[in-house]
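Hey, can you fold this?
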Amino acid sequence: MKSSIKAGFLLLVTAALALMSACGGNQAKMVEGKVNVITSFYPLYDFTNKIGGEHVNVVNLVPTGVEPHDWTPKSSDMKHLSAAQVFVYNGAGLEGWVGNFLGSLNKNSALQVVEASKGIDLIRAEEQEGHGEDSGHGHEHEELEFNPHVWLSPLQAKNMAENIKHALISADAAHKSDYEANFAQLSARLDALHNKFQNTLGKLPNKNIVVSHDAFAYLAKEYGLKQLPIMGLAPDAEPTAQSMKEIASFVRQNQVKAIFFEELVSDKVAKALAADTGVKTLLVLNPLEGLTEEQEKSGADYFTLMENNLQNLVKGLQ
């Protein structure tokens, strides 16, 4: 009796540990007969799956529910990276760990490395309007040369997807026609999304958005919005008292009706600003840096999240 109870207990412990392991990060498994692709964060994972279709096995490095700015890979992640055929990362300084990883690769490595933002006209950090440069002094991400959030413009996302397509064709020329066809479908959807954003936001009289962190420069530039970030390029950088005072003054003077926050970081500062200025509406504006567990379960993707962003922008700017 005791032995059976002990055996049952051990089984429960083993199952619990397995579950904890699964929840703690993505289990990178290489699949024979497919192009194994590892992506650095969610949008790249989504685009690669849509372009690669049945021919690819895509593993996303950053676990569900984790914000990628401060995430760093473990040694096991590095091992899986070396075993893959293609590695896709954003670039523009988003993944601070990539330089060391690429430098550690064996000279004979056949790994295809894709910098998805390559060829895109990047926005320099010091060119941006707003208070992002004044926030969170001393944080490593504030020293970024460029704003890395290019994927939030559907047109720039299309350029990123094209870079991914070229890498898949290079790694697996036998399925070139499928990759080309899948990319054409994705490209058409991104064009349609761009047109919808352009037509919808163009009709709104108010163009000022107060956001939790400096993630929406490319979206703002594309659609004539003015982004005022509470925090800088790093979503966890604390704003200074002076910058909060200036943003509060801007909110009052421009009769801002909504403050936008995001799901993967604390909404504490956004709520404090809303309380200070009397703004009653808090809305999600998702930087698409990762999915929550609920979004993953519901089958959300780049397009559904961007559609939600558009709906909330309309609510906040009317």
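Oh, and this one too while you're at it.
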Amino acid sequence: MQIALPDNVFGTVDPGNTAWVIMSAALVLLMTPALAFFYGGLSRSKSVLNMMMMSFAALGTVTVVYVLWGFSMSFGDSLTGTGDIGGVFSNPLALFGSDQLTQTRTVGGQTHYVVWGSTHIPAIVFLAFQLTFAVIAVALISGALAERVRFATWLVFTVLFSTIVYFPLAHMVWGGGLLSGAKDSIAAWMFGVADGVAKVAPIDFAGGTVIHINAGIAGLVLALVVGKRRGFGRTAYRPHNIPFVMLGAALLWFGWFGFNAGSEFGADMTAGLVWVNTAVAAAAAMAGWLVVEWIRDRHPTSVGAASGLVAGLVAITPACGAVTPVGAILLGLIAGALAAVGIRLKHRYGFDDSLDVVGVHLVAGLWGTLAIGLLSKETGLFYGHDYRQLAVQAVIAFAALAFTATATFVIAMVLKPMGWRIDRESELTGIDATEHAESAYEPA
């Protein structure tokens, strides 16, 4: 049942910060259709519509469940004050439907709204922003499953994954749970508490753990459970539309400024620093990827440029508020090179991560999360500080890996009776025709 909100969550609203976060939410929402173009272009022509539909499907299902119970599970106890469940998630019914977030009260003749913490942003705007993160985290996973998964099973998976994995992980990292800097978190257990919080708190400014490590390891687990495409290792799976890939990457880069700078929840100097760090990390990562291609393959490619900049965006996401612009350049350069090497892992170990979710999001996400312990100006090892920030970052990253891998495997097994794979004939014919009765390109 819904729980009444206490008086201390009502306050005045800062119009400037509110406008910035609403705009940022719109930018992040654009990233999921942008991802559809990016993934669609990387697919073969007979699979492009299905690939794009997987992103749009996540946009449909996760948006609805986030408003119904996702926000309550992720952040509900921060508003209701009722406490969470084992540090893992909040009561999904406490704010079910999110109607309470639009309540107002009159204090001294002035209207007060339900606001998020000390930001003076309406809680309903905070919900809108966080909703877009939940959507793209689920959509990212689809890149590991291209061309072979039943659409109905994917739809059910989006609901189960967001509920069982994403919402709890968001609470654990951002909502005051086990992987945050709260007084009863893992970080507090490691290095103690001061002033009611962990002495060394993990840093995940905009989602390296919650979004990218989460999606990357989930994609790996599903790729292993679902199995390889027929012909994997023998067939050349070439992108059918590289301009789509470039368009998708450009729109992702554009939306990512809302993703990262919006996570400051204010139009201030830190948001400006985050914007600059996001820009230079992506640019440096593109260079890092192209250098690897030039040395390894003798040809810098358009797909490599697009993939490299995305790897840089992934890596800077957790660190964007903690590093200097020079640190962001170094972080991005290494991220691009690591991801360019990382995409070869699927061939070495024989798993079919179709569109390189593991190589880009898991590898770059892990690097960005760990690099904070090295490059953070306030706590990083390279700035004369001790090992503790790096230790906390490593523990949080690998705890998230273990949680997501285990939960995703359970979900995958539960959905096996539904059937993950389309049949052999459908896969050879093309998933667009068999699953959607459509074709992206009519014969000439």
